[in-house]
Amino acid sequence: MIRAAIDVVTSIPSPPVSSFTIQLFSWTLTIHYYALCIIAGIIVAVFMTNRRLTKRGAEPWVVIDIALIAVPLAIIAARIYHVLTHYSFYFGPGSRPWSFLYIWEGGIAIYGALIGGAIGAWLGCRWTGIRFTAFADALAPGLLLAQALGRFGNWFNQELFGLPTDLPWGLEIDSDNAAFPPGLAPGTLFHPTFLYEVIWNTLGVIVLIWAGRKFTLQWGRLFGLYLVWYSAGRIVWESIRIDPSDVYLGLRTNVWAAIIGVVLGLIVIFWQKRRHPGLEPSPYVPGREWKGKGAVQSQETADFVDVSEPPAERVESGSATSSVASK
């Protein structure tokens, strides 16, 4: 009895509401806090990426041109990935097949967003002349912080929590919430997986920035480290979550996706290190360098030209790249 009282006192409460409404003339607009968390994450990622790219000599706010393609594709792919990894929920017996279009009911997946966003970013980089690897490295810390902010949306929605726990930081979930597991007593506390991921991702931002400066990770290797860091944590959080998910060979689909993320990240780190032993000569592809006001030339760039590129493709001007280019 005493233990139960302590748990209630020290537990983490969930927000009582997940949305609010705004009256616009004859229309009632419902705004979900989850959407606001995602939007806040996107804004933070754009600002961080812009700062990191411009420090390397890129045109200020060129990141917006890339985001205009990458963000919509990321959202679309996130929804498609969620539906495919929860196929039985949308196309199984008694399901509503057309509900796969109802994104406002929830259901997007970060790994789908990464796939769609990567395609969109690649197209945006082709359009703007930015090296895809330079953009990916500049994006990595901001993306991880954006994911941390986005997880607060799960807290507002009272969803995607973990197994029951008696730990003092257990999460309270309303017993009448649709996500509350049947058969459990009201007042049962759960692992706050959203908070675990927020802490892990925020710590990862610090690690990525430090590693980028310490080891001058370029050519996509910092993004590879992001994949390893985020996916390693996701394996743990996903393993204790109890929300419905398709299972293959005893593992949830997102656990498999996280394992693939770790492997892919390691491949990117070691493959790019072997393929590009030097520094990126510019955040731009050869011939597409920005020559506008604020473009900076660094003599150090010439001293660290990537020897894996043919001489005709080496660029030694129009860049702010230096030995601390990943700062």
UniProtKB/TrEMBL annotation:
Localisation: Cell membrane
First-listed, main subcellular location of the protein, grouped into a coarse class: membrane
UniProt keyword list: Cell membrane, Membrane, Transferase, Transmembrane, Transmembrane helix
EC number: 2.5.1.145
Membrane topology: Multi-pass membrane protein
Binding site for a 1,2-diacyl-sn-glycero-3-phospho-(1'-sn-glycerol): 151
Single annotated GO MF: phosphatidylglycerol-prolipoprotein diacylglyceryl transferase activity
Record field: transmembrane: 31-49, 61-81, 101-125, 132-150, 194-212, 219-237, 249-271
Region (Disordered): 301-327
Polar residues biased stretches: 318-327
Leader sequence residues: none
Root EC class: transferase
Keyword Transmembrane helix: yes
Coiled-coil annotated residue ranges, if any: none
Family, per entry: Belongs to the Lgt family.
Function: Catalyzes the transfer of the diacylglyceryl group from phosphatidylglycerol to the sulfhydryl group of the N-terminal cysteine of a prolipoprotein, the first step in the formation of mature lipoproteins.
NCBIfam families: lgt (TIGR00544)
PANTHER family: PHOSPHATIDYLGLYCEROL--PROLIPOPROTEIN DIACYLGLYCERYL TRANSFERASE, PROLIPOPROTEIN DIACYLGLYCERYL TRANSFERASE
Full protein name: Phosphatidylglycerol--prolipoprotein diacylglyceryl transferase
Gene: lgt
